[in-house]
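step=encode ok
step=design start
structure_in=
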């Protein structure tokens, strides 16, 4: 059973995610949005990137695996 804090942390407000469109002709704006998302929250969503579904699925699986580690997890220090 999840604690309230963990449940709250596991919920992402999708409308709050920065969406970066790589098909946009304004590459400078895309770069600024990417930098801002990395520095301020660490999460963002990229569309029109041209990556295949298999690679995207693998990336999501790795993200889930990484987020399951605790900050103090010794296996990350190796």
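sequence_out=
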């Amino acid at each position: 059973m999840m604690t309230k804090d963990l449940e709250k942390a596991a919920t992402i407000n999708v409308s709050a995610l920065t969406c970066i469109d790589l098909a946009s002709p304004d590459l400078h704006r895309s770069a600024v949005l990417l930098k801002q998302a990395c520095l301020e929250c660490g999460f963002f969503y990229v569309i029109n990137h041209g990556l295949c579904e298999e690679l995207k699925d693998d990336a999501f699986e790795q993200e889930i695996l990484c987020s399951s580690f605790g900050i103090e997890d010794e296996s990350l220090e190796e």
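step=design ok
step=annotate ok -> The chain has three helices and two strands.
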